[in-house]
Design goal:
By secondary structure, this protein is an alpha+beta fold. It has a domain at 1-59 and 138-182 and 205-250 and 354-406. 50% of the residues lie in helices and 9% in strands. The protein contains 14 helices and 8 strands. Strands 1-5-6-7-8 form a 5-stranded antiparallel β-sheet. A 3-stranded antiparallel β-sheet has the order 2-3-4. The longest helix has 42 residues, at 370-411. The two termini are 47 Å apart. The relative contact order is 0.12.
Length: 416
């Protein structure tokens, strides 16, 4: 069967681009700010997010003791995730939920906050917010922009819509690349000589040529990272598509493994409390990383997460298999009652598909490469917006030209 010709792929690219333009423009603009999320978020509410000891030399509380103090003051709340190591100069941030133990649904009498920031030295609550609710003011600006970035701040439907957009974007990356090639390039010699102009922005002789060159050359220069961003977006937003493909390629889907461990009903109160689980998780991490020839690294952040739906604890720590600065990608899952080891996940080195996913996700979130890559991701985000806008401008110009030709043809007098 012969593949469709170039005119068909032009139409595919045109309509894919028009469909994606708004989504990619929003994702690009918000994404240019997200590499600086922690700094910008703290700047919007420094009194809430920054912390210092009341007196010099005062020892900080254990993070689990800070969590216990919060739960003592708010007995209806649950805090199922806690960082066991801290960022210097920052308050402890805990995320609280307010489920009804009988139904698992959120309580109606819950307060208007879920994010709480606590002083690490005293455990005092420095501030609260309902994560992402921009109506609460500037302290929620960055969480709102984050939600806008991945779901248009529209909840599950927005998440799914952005996932479909990411899937279309992935396919369109290849279509757009093909269209930059000179016609008949695969069957003729001198490919680079004829293709080279596509990589350049010519000296502008008109606004249209400048717009066209920015769109074509910008897409080519950014093409590899655009594909990385598109693929990672599918993994975030459309796991029902990404997971089966990952499995076919030999990758390990940790979320699917956890979902397969779901209990008939949530186990709200496991036999192991958080301090005991933290000690057990640290011991298992030491044992399992050594068994795999890995070493634990002290420069990352450890965390502990309890999942009532599965009755499992997940202990995250940084090992020599982690590629990000904070780490936490090496994960040990164990039963919350018996402590039995259920699953070990390492981010790189075990399966090629898992390693690939770890890298594309880390590149997307600017968790590797230090300051230079964070700057690059901001520039790339703006570049994605430029590609979206220039694509629409090109379509408008061509549409106007086609309409003009039809008008002239209709106005031309019929031959005698």
């Amino acid at each position: 069967m012969a593949l469709p010709g170039r005119p068909f792929w032009v139409i595919v690219h045109r309509w894919a681009g028009l469909t994606l333009a708004l989504f990619l423009a929003v994702a690009g603009l918000t994404g240019s700010l997200l590499p600086w999320f922690e700094e910008l978020d703290a700047a919007t509410a420094p009194a809430m997010q920054n912390a210092a000891p009341p007196r010099p030399g005062m020892a900080a509380l254990d993070p689990l003791a800070v969590r216990a103090g919060l739960l003592a003051r708010h007995p209806a709340a649950r805090v199922d995730f806690v960082y066991l190591t801290r960022l210097p100069g920052r308050a402890d941030r805990l995320y609280a939920t307010w489920p009804d133990p009988r139904t698992g649904l959120e309580r109606r009498d819950r307060p208007d906050w879920d994010d709480v920031f606590l002083n690490p030295w005293t455990g005092a609550e420095q501030g609260h917010r309902r994560n992402g609710d921009v109506r609460q003011g500037i302290k929620n600006l960055m969480p709102f922009l984050y939600r806008l970035h991945y779901s248009l701040a529209l909840g599950p439907w927005g998440l799914f819509t952005m996932g479909v957009a990411a899937l279309v974007w992935t396919v369109d990356c290849f279509v757009g690349f093909y269209l930059t090639l000179p016609p008949g390039a695969l069957g003729k010699g001198g490919l680079w000589r004829r293709w080279r102009p596509s990589w350049k922005v010519r000296r502008p002789t008109s606004s249209y040529k400048l717009t066209f060159d920015l769109h074509r050359a910008g897409g080519l220069w950014l093409w590899p990272i655009l594909l990385v961003f598109a693929l990672s977006s599918v993994s975030f937003n459309l796991p029902q598509v990404y997971r089966p493909v990952l499995g076919l390629l030999g990758g390990q889907d940790d979320e699917a493994l956890l979902e397969a461990s779901a209990l008939p009903s949530p186990r709200w109160n496991p036999a192991l409390d958080f301090p005991a689980a933290a000690r057990h998780g640290a011991a298992l991490a030491q044992q399992e990383t050594a068994r795999r020839g890995l070493s634990l690294r002290p420069d990352g952040r450890a965390w502990l997460w309890y999942i009532p739906a599965t009755g499992l604890y997940v202990y995250g720590v940084k090992s020599s298999a982690d590629i990000t600065q904070e780490g936490g990608g090496t994960r040990i899952a164990f039963d919350g009652n018996s402590g039995e080891l259920r699953h070990v996940s390492v981010p790189t080195g075990a399966q090629g598909a898992t390693t690939f996913t770890t890298w594309v996700v880390a590149l997307h979130m600017a968790h590797v490469g230090g300051l230079a890559w964070r700057i690059a991701v901001s520039v790339i985000g703006l570049g994605i917006t430029v590609l979206s806008v220039t694509g629409v401008l090109i379509w408008l110009r061509k549409r106007s030209a086609r309409a003009g030709r039809r008008f002239k043809a209709a106005a031309r007098p019929a031959p005698a």
